[in-house]
Amino acid sequence: MTSPREPKDQNNLMFAVALSILVLMGWQYFFARPELQKEQARQEFNKKIDAQNKDGSSETPPNVASTPVAPPSTDAPTGAQAPTAAPVSREVALQGSPRLKIETPSLEGSIDLKGGRLDDLVLMKYRETVDPNSARVILLSPSGSPEPYFAEYGWVPQSGSAIKVPTRDTLWTVESGTRLTPETPVTLMWDNGGGLVFHRTVSVDNDYMFKIKDEIENKTQAEVTLLPYARVHRSGHPPSQAFYVLHEGLVGVSGDHGLQEFTFADALKSGVPTTFDNVTGGWLGITDKYWATALVPEQSEPYRAMYSALKARDPAGKDAFQTDYLRGALSVPAGLRKGVEGHLFAGAKQASLIDGYENALGILRFDRMIDWGWFYFITRPLFRLMEFINGLVHNFGITILILTVLVKAAFYPLANKQYESMARMKKLQPEMQRIKEQYKDDTQRQQKEIFELYRTQKINPLAGCWPILLQIPVFFALYKVLFVTIDMRHAPFFGWIHDLSAPDPTSLFNLFGLLPFDAPTFLHIGVWPLIMGITMWMQMQLNPPQPDPIQQQVFQWMPVVFTFMLASFPAGLVIYWAWSNTLSILQQVRINKKNGAEVHLFDNIKRTFRPLLRLFGAGSGPGK
């Protein structure tokens, strides 16, 4: 016989199911779908003509106007070139001008002798996918290619000056060196025909740091004054991870103004360059999740830093992003040769390398190139610990498991207090329910009796909350470390996980590869997300059933919602979450038994699956 309560429970169940479906549909519509559209739009942008010019609308170097460190000027620097018909392939663009080869253990590429730009860099230690035969990661690409991204150094004349300076069309000659290697720097030269000879010496280390020395040889009879600049320019919409815990876009440390971060979208939305005048120390550039290109001016000399973006005026065009700095005027007396120096970082954001550069070159807060987040003081020590563990076990997946155990152990005393408080509260549930029923018409008396019960039993109802609040920053910092550091990229675990930085490749909806079709994105639920969901559900079953049926159904379906949401997360993070849940279950069961509190796990599991057992004819006897 059906009890009168069953229709209500069924309605509650349907409500919870409908709510879960709405959440999933909302996630798909507001997060997964826009990201897919963004990627499709990016690919389309890269196939079409740039409406402004080859490099975007910021082709001209920075303007000297409004800077206190240089004589004022209202003239924009020269050097712009008329737009071309359409972008060509990267290979064709590279063949369009003479080049000087770059060869290091970490980089390969070339310097464009037409313009003297660094616009061709390939990261030799990193590939696009886990396939060892896949293409290597391309960082910089030349003007005219589908995705222009380059670094440029140059000179700006003062207002009203007719001095001829190098432009993007300038053809430099090789003064010394045949190729750029860590052992052999190269020097380029250009004579302006008016008594000035420009020299550019480029050197590079074994990793990702270039040193650029620009000099002016003054063969005229008068003193010459010019302003040195440098910029990093990128056209088009770079592929983005689009996670709130990760910054991608314009970034830098502008002296006393501190860390500056502008996402690609925010920079475009502003429409106005962000400028910091009279800055001393720091750096600025453009960053992706794992790669960055950053200008490093001399740390003791003042400069003006600018972060800018310009939206394409035509839907077929490319948006342009740029960071640049302009140094104070350099005066070169007649008959002398003087210059300036700067560095350029272009490569992978390896924490140890970046820290080494910060110390060796005295770069102000260069370590902030990696997005350590608000909990910097926690994320950095956690990463150091992670590096140490991985150096011993040589498997990043095992490193995650060990690191999770160590973090859990560090919080074991706090977690004990939390679970002990919860266990003692559970033992008081019958007495609290009796008080609520006895004084159901007198709320004040009810609360007074409950607080008196807490006092006599020496229980603080808030004691279980404080350990959770203290642990939140640490666990968020651990999440951040696992997500933003390059160490997890293409790092294998065991079995089917060949890349801990990518989602679990299996899917429940094609029976984990047994059926010959690919499941839709929002239905791509792999083995590890399922394990995570199961452990989360089991952890919730440790608590007694909620008195409100709707709340109980929401708690039942919450792990399902989280399983779908986390299915697109990197496998390393899902493994961490599942393992953390497992440890929490074991710890909570132990503490409940120690305090004599009832362990509701198995009873709740039976209660959950009782309708299924009835459906198959089991458990239908008397008393079931």
Shape: elongated
How do the strands of the widest beta sheet line up side by side?
A: 6-7-8-9-19-15-14-11-12
Portion in helices: 25-40%
Q: Bin the strand percentage.
A: 15-25%
Radius of gyration: 31 Å
SS field, number of helical segments? 14
* Head-to-tail CA distance between termini: 13 Å
Please mark out the parts with pLDDT under 50 across 5 or more consecutive residues, or reply none. 1-14, 31-60, 63-85, 619-624
**How can the largest sheet be summarized?**
9 strands, antiparallel
- Find the structural class using helix and strand composition: alpha+beta
Q: Mean of residue pLDDT? A: 80
What is the count of β-strands?
A: 19
Please provide a brief summary of the model:
By secondary structure, the chain is of the alpha+beta class. 37% of the residues lie in helices and 22% in strands.
Notes on the protein architecture:
This protein is α+β, with helices and mostly antiparallel strands and 624 residues long. Helices cover 37% and strands 22% of the residues. The chain is built from 14 helices and 19 strands. It has a 9-stranded antiparallel β-sheet. Strands 5, 10, 13, 16, 17 and 18 form a 6-stranded antiparallel β-sheet that branches. The chain has a 4-stranded antiparallel β-sheet with strand order 1-2-3-4, with no helix packed on it. A hairpin with a 4-residue loop joins strand 2 and strand 3 (117-127). Helix 8 packs antiparallel against helix 9. The two termini are 13 Å apart. Residues 1-14, 31-60, 63-85 and 619-624 have low confidence and may be disordered.
